[in-house]
Amino acid sequence: MARRSRKEHAVPYGGDIIGAVLRQQNIGVAIFDESGAILVAEKLPAASGLELGGALEDSPFFTGLMPEVLALRGSRRVLEFSGIGLPGDTAQKFDIRIRWQATIGLFVVLFHSANERMAFEMKIAQDARERRLLLETIAQQQRQIEAQNALMTSFARHVPAAAAMLDGDLRYLLATERWREQTGGEIVSRPFREGIPGPAKRWEAALRRKDGAIKGGVEKLVDARGVTRWQRWEQHRLPDVDGSGARTLVFAQDITQAVAQTERLRKQARQLAALNEEMRGFALAAAHDLRAPVRQIQAFARFLAEPDQSPDELAAHGERIGLCADRLSGMLESLLRYARIEATPAQRVAFPLLRAIKAARDMLAEPLRARGVLLVIDSKGAGRHQVDGDEALLTLLFQNLFDNALKYNLAAAPTLSVRLAVSGRHLVVDVVDNGPGIPPQVIGKAFALFQRLNAPKNVAGSGVGLALCRKIAELHQGRITLATPPGGGLCVTLSLPLAARKA
Q1: Which entry of 3, 25, 288, 441 is 20 to 30 Å from 315 by CA?
Q2: How many CB atoms lie within 10 A of CB 17?
Q3: Contacts of 377 (CB under 8 A, 6+ apart)
Q4: Which domains, ranges and CATH numbers included, belong to the chain?
C-alpha cells in the first residue's frame, strides 16, 4: 500500500459537488455510499483500483479507511492525502480528498494531480533562491559601501555609554543620543567643550595632545544649574583611512552615583574609626575611674579587719564604704544610660525644638524655684522652626544642661538664659549661666566620661552628663561646644540641622 499522510479540517457546504467536479479537467471524482459501493467514477487513474460498481475497499489506497470515512458523517471535515504515488507509476503523484456531502447523503473522493502543484512549488523555491542570490548581491554591495565608512562602523562598535566622534579640530562629527542628552540639541560641527556640562579644560587638553599619552581620566563637571556630576572618559585615536584626517572617539560614563557611594563608604569608615576610638576611650575611662571607688572600698574593708578599733572608728569606716559604694553605683548607672543612648536608634520626627527646651525646664521647675534661678528663654522668632529628631533624647540633653547649671552654680543670684537663632540651615541654641565656668586650658576635656572639671567637691555627680549631651547631639547630626564668656560663666552651644518645614 502506498504511503499516506493525512489531515482533517472543516470545509463549508459545497452545493452541487458532482457537477462542479466534473467540469474540472484536472480532477478525477468518485462517489460512494455508506457501504463503500462506487456510484460514480470519472477521470480516475486506472491504477487507483476505483471503478463503477466496485467497492472503495478494493483500492489499495483506501484499505482499512472505512471507519475514518464513516466518521465524516454529520461533520464538515475532510480527509486529505498529499503526494500519493500510484503503484507502478513513480512519476505520477496525486492529492486525494474525501468528504461527506450531506445534500445527497454520499461520500465524494477527489483526485488532484500533485505534479502540477509540485512543479509550482518548485518554481516558488527557484524564485526564492533567485531572490536570495539577489539579496546576497545587494548585501555584498552594502558591505562595500560600509567599508568606505569604516569609521562609522568602528564608532558604533565602541559605544559602552555616551560616545562622540571628533575631527582633528575637536569638533563633533557624530554623537550618540546619550551624549546629546547633555546638550539638549544638535552638536554636529560644534566645538567639543560645548557638548559637555561646565568647563573641562584638562579633558580638552588631553585630547589635543598629539602623542596620545593620556588615554582617559575622571572629570568633575558643573552644569548651568550648579549641579555637580562626575564623568569617567577615555579616548581612541582612529587611523586616517579615507584621507579626510585623523579622528578621535570619546566615550564617557556618568559615575556620579558611584562617587557618592564611595564618599558614603569613606564617611562610614571615618565614623567607624571615630567610634572605635571613642569605645577605646570609653573602656579606658571606665577601667580607670571605676577602680577608684573599688580601691577605697577595699582599703576601708581592710581597716575594718584591724584589731583594737573603737566603735566610732568602725562606724566611720563603714560609712565611707557605703559612700564609695553609692558613688560606684552612680557611675555604673551613668554608664548604662550612656550605653543605652549609644545602642538605641533615635526616633526621627519633625518637631519644634522649643518644645523640648520647655519640657526640660518644666521637669526641673521645683529645683529651679528652690534655688531662685532666673531662667529666660529667648527664641527671637526661631521657636517655630523644627528639627528632625527624637524629642525625648533632646529633652534629656537640655535637662542635663539645666541640671549642671543648677548644681555647679553657687552664686547668690543664679541666672540661666536660653537663646535660639537660625544660622543657615541649622538651628543654634545657646545655654548661658553665670556659674564658675570651666578654665579654657581644660575645656577640651569636658565631654570625656567621668570628668568633673572645676566642680565643687560637695556637689554630687558622676561626670557623664556632658558626654551624654555630646552623644545625643551626634546622633542628630548636630554639634555641641563649650565657651567661657568674657564676663564669666559658661556658654553651651548646640547646633542641629533644620527640618524641611516649619511648625
Answers
A1: 288
A2: 18
A3: 354, 357, 358, 361, 417, 418, 420
A4: 6-119 (3.30.450.20), 152-254 (3.30.450.20), 346-503 (3.30.565.10)
Scanning the structure block, which residue is given the C-alpha cell 579644560?
201
**What sections of 290-310 are H helices per DSSP?**
291-305
CB neighbours of residue 384 within 10 Å: 10
Separation of alpha carbons 449 and 341, rounded Å: 14
Among the ranges given (138-147, 290-299, 309-318, 431-440), the one the predictor scored with the smallest mean pLDDT? 290-299
User: What integer is the mean pLDDT of 460-483?
Assistant: 79
Q: Are 416 and 357 in contact (CB under 8 A)?
A: no
Write the pLDDT tens digit of every residue in 33-72. 988 899 988 888 777 778 888 888 888 778 788 888 888 8
C-alpha cell of residue 220: 568633575
Please report how the helices 391-408 and 465-475 are oriented relative to each other, as an axis angle in degrees rounded to 10.
Answer: 150
Entry field: residues in the chain: 503
Q: Are 269 and 250 in contact (CB under 8 A)?
A: no
Q: Mean pLDDT, to the nearest integer, of 405-423?
A: 83
What span, in angstroms and rounded, lies between the C-alpha atoms of 42 and 24?
Answer: 11
**What is the greatest pairwise CA distance in the chain?**
150
Predicted confidence (pLDDT) per residue in 235-286, tens digit: 888 877 666 777 888 877 788 888 889 888 888 888 778 767 766 655 555 5
Counting Cα atoms < 13 Å in the Cβ hemisphere of 52 gives: 4
Q: Which amino acid is at 308?
A: D
Contact 196, 221 (CB under 8 A): yes
